[in-house]
Design goal:
The complex is a heterodimer of chains A (174) and B (404).
Chain A lengths: L5 H27 L4 H5 L3 E4 L9 E5 L2 E7 L2 H6 L2 H5 L2 E3 L2 E7 L10 E3 L4 E3 L6 E3 L4 E3 L11 E4 L2 E4 L4 H9 L4
Antiparallel strand pairs in A: 1-11, 2-3, 3-5, 4-5, 6-7, 7-8, 8-9, 10-11
Chain B lengths: L9 H9 L1 H10 L2 E3 L8 H20 L9 H12 L3 H29 L7 H23 L4 H12 L9 H8 L6 H31 L13 H9 L8 E3 H26 L29 H7 L4 H14 L3 H4 L13 H21 L4 H26 L5
Helix pairs in contact in B: 1-2, 3-5, 3-11, 4-5, 5-6, 5-11, 6-9, 12-13, 12-15, 13-16, 15-16
The chains are: A alpha+beta (174), B mainly alpha (404).
Bound molecules: protoporphyrin IX containing FE and FE2/S2 (inorganic) cluster.
The site of protoporphyrin IX containing FE has 25 residues of chain B, from helix 3, helix 5, helix 6 and helix 9.
Amino acid sequence: MEKTSRRGFMGKAFGAVAAVGGVASLVAMKQTWDPLPSVKAAGFTEVDLSTVEANCLVVEKWRGKPIFILKKTAEMVAKQDEAQTARDVIVDGTHYMIAIGLCTHLGCIPAYADKKEIFQCACHGGEFDSSGLDIKAPPPSPLVIPPFNVKGQTVMLGEEGPEYKKMKEAGILA
Amino acid sequence: MAHFTKATSVKDWLNQRLAIEKVEKVMASEYWIPKNINFLWAMGMVLAITFGLLLVSGIFLLMYYQPNVETAFDSVNYTIMQEVGYGWLWRHVHAVAASVVFLIIYIHMLTGIYYGSYKKGREMIWISGMLLFVAFSAEAFSGYMLPWGQMSYWAGMVITNLFSAGSLELNGVVEWIRGDYVPGQAFLTRFFMLHVLLVPLAILALIGVHFAALRIPHVNNQDGEDIDFDVEAKKYLAGDTKGSKVIRFANDFMSKDMFVVSIFLVFFFYLVFWNYGFAMDPVNFDPADGLKTPAHIYPEWYFLWSYEILRPFSKDVGLIAFAFAQVIFVLLPFLDRSPNVKTANKRGLFGIWFWLLVIDMIVLTAMGKLPPQGIYSTIGFVAAIGFIGLWVILPFITAIEKKV
Ligand code: HEM
Ligand code: FES
């Protein structure tokens, strides 16, 4: 084998040191931009369903995001098909829609039109029905259902209760 | 070894150490500019001056601005606008300059396209120019976050969501960019850092590259004539200044440049004092509220055309079309297959292509501002398809172009 020149060796040594240092600093830089533990831990929100009025949208805040809670009237439930009903959270026989109120297109908050019983997004014209299913593009998917746990007349957002897990298995969260 | 002698003057002292005379020649008095150019060639200087205005006004805003979600809005809208002496002036200068700079950038770009100033050795000027456009876009977007009004918050929400790449659902990437589930404190402070340090640094570096890229090919001229700068410079230096096709950059050409700059500045300060409203969106005078979307979210006018390319399509197609619009201009020197460096008007189909592109971008801009309904959606859709179509046919129509 040829005798490697000293300059070549020094060049390679520098390359190795720089590569290790470079990768290590990239790791540090990436982590510096991660959400802080305090942000991640930002907790759980409890919602009282007993005061909610039918066909009148309630907006709660969870992890800085708006959460839509819509109590459905008996007529609304009667009109629904299976896919719509599958997304309902049923508490004592009453149907509720619970969903993250951010349009699945690019994240605006759709407004609820109670006459038409649909959600309309002003940003790019998307629409969702009263179960959160997307009925007009550009949104590509239904409103996302956040983790929830029903406890009597209250719902704990952020906890994965049995009803939530069932929806998750059925693959209808979004 | 370098040889130093006792200096005869300050100039000589510096000259021995920094070769200032040589530098002055290379950069100014023997940097040759063709005579055959018009006021459109002053746009680069107008841009440099406008960047200076942004820098100075930004430094003064920085003395009272507070990058905190609780206090940012008031520090701008109350402290700077009402308490600080002439605080409103810095803010108006900053806002108007940020808007006008894009108008000039678009004129500068279209001038380059019209005269074919992006090929035959001028590719790096074009590419560094497009990188400057990207950097200025990042600068404008990050600055728009700072007053933490409704438009800041919701533009931040919508634009960062683009990074989930549609159906790929890369929500982790979006949360990483924000440092939170939604735009919050971490988001505001990091965009503040980008706006006042990292992006301006990148802009300064890119301006250096842009100027360096100009030095060897020199600027183009109105007829795309391939001037032999060495020959013309010799003629000029030999005293035939009339017969030579070139003049010195400084002070001769600079004086013309600065004349255009003064006209620009009169217009600019007219806007700053009497017509600044267009540069400040009324919706952004409401403080950020994560539970209330404004009725219409639209970007500043200079982003409307690319926003409108995103809007009429389904989510994934829209994102691809948007990404296409963002990068395609960079590739212009390689998509134009014709060797002609001539004004668009003398290039047959390319001339038509140029004007269609201008009209299409104006239509996209207009539709982007209107609510996405009915006929507006349709016109926007057609214009978006048109934009993509124009770029797809460009290599073909330029390949068959006759040599002129
Ligand atoms: C190094 C130079 C710069 C510094 C130090 C700086 C600093 C600042 C500061 C402190 C603010 C917040 C106060 C306010 O909102 O009025 C701001 C806002 C802003 N900046 Fe800059 N800036 C610089 C360059 C630029 C450039 C080059 C652009 C765009 C092309 C730009 C676009 C904006 C915009 C759009 C706003 C929001 C203005 C408003 O809402 O009134 N800035 N800048
Ligand atoms: S964000 Fe709702 S339609 Fe685009």
